[in-house]
Structure prediction request, 497 residues.
Amino acid sequence: MIPLDGLTGENIFSKGHGYTYDDFILLPGFIDFAVEDAVLETNLTRNISLKSPLSSSPMDTVTESRMAIAMALLGGIGFIHYNNTIQEQANEVRKVKRFKNGFITDPIVLSPNHRIADIDRIKRQQGYSGIPITEDGSLGSKLVGIVTNRDIDFVQDRDTLLSEVMTTHLITAQEGVSLEEANRILQESKKGKLPIVDKQFRMVTLISRTDLLKNRDYPLASKGIDKRLLVGAALSTRPEDRDRLEALVKEGLNVVVIDSSQGNSTYQIDMINHIKYHYPQLEVIAGNIVTAAQAKNLIDAGADGLRIGMGAGSICTTQKVMAVGRPQATAVFQTAQYAKDFGVPVIADGGIANIGHIIKALSLGASAVMMGGMLAGTEEAPGEYFYKDGVRLKKYRGMGSVEAMNEGGAKRYFADKEKIKVAQGVSGSVVDKGSLLSYVPYLLQGLRQGFQDIGTRNIRELHAALYNGDLRFELRTHAAQAEGDVHHLYSYEMEMV
Prediction:
């Protein structure tokens, strides 16, 4: 009889030690399927399933409508932050629910009184320059022209008004046009942009040839029974956020995250009870928590999913400042082991820095992961790019940072009424990662390859192997961790293929 190598999850995580993702490694299994046969479908909550086990964090430098749309198209889901007014958050949810494949619902629009320099700025920050021109520079105003590179490339004076250079002979389509018909118009006109207008010639939306090509087909898209994209949003436990919730539900919200740094509270239980009574069709993800005892309280209250993590994020300092929390790998295993008996999925939130960490979170019982830093810096993340030392960056900040707390994030830490606020996060910047439409498929392909190495075809099999002892782990020393990373090179470059 061949002895089994390694340890079971129970062996490792029942000894009273706290472990992070880098403290252990999975042992390989037997491969009897191709990479493309690995299936990543999972349950986000009791009643919401996704084709991809990925979600974006409700942080104000991570998730607004652009991120949520892209995540849903790619099989995951985005959770829109609440560091804004009720109407602003509701508007972001509305944009996701009204999204149609290939249509840009919130294009940048300028007025004739703007200057070429404004186009130059948009091109530097956003990477494109074909801008519709309306009478007052807003969406919903009468369309009067469009400015593209061919209009401005050879104009020396960049203070020239757009009214002097814009193209006024316009190819447009009427509101309600199908994507197929819009594509035909673009092909025949050989234009890069197609403004969509209403009967009064007011700008409604925009179609871009490049976006049309990108958005041609998304077989993994997360959609509800109404065929619209799924979207989540966050709210606090404050009583006034019940009005926020009402506005979000009116826009078609599918799932809500009750956003607390320590979710095991009477305030959160009261909010769960309120939601379940008034909006029984709405799925509720409760948290954040890190222990089985916390999980019990929230499951008993009616939570449909649990968000796991306290102080594990790259910009979070809760464990250091408050001396409270838990290493993320241990937190995920212990909560998932308890929640599985009640059919409640857990979402690993925090500590995800690479594909391997996603695989490890799933291998410990998580049904999905929530990412902040991994997605910050993409084109779809809120904020503008800037350069420092020749590197293109975007701002990324913790919701517990002083900067974010002053703008509303303090509600997450029960500190919005306090005169003295103690920061539990920092503000920083991350490198440009390009478009999510290229980045997430790269992550998903890496996950499939990891599943093949483990020898499991899907997340259901992975969890079964975890709990029956077939999935084997090994703890790693610091030397072993160093050996498993790049070492003994003079220099190297890590590139995403």
Q: What stands out?
A: The mean pLDDT is 90.
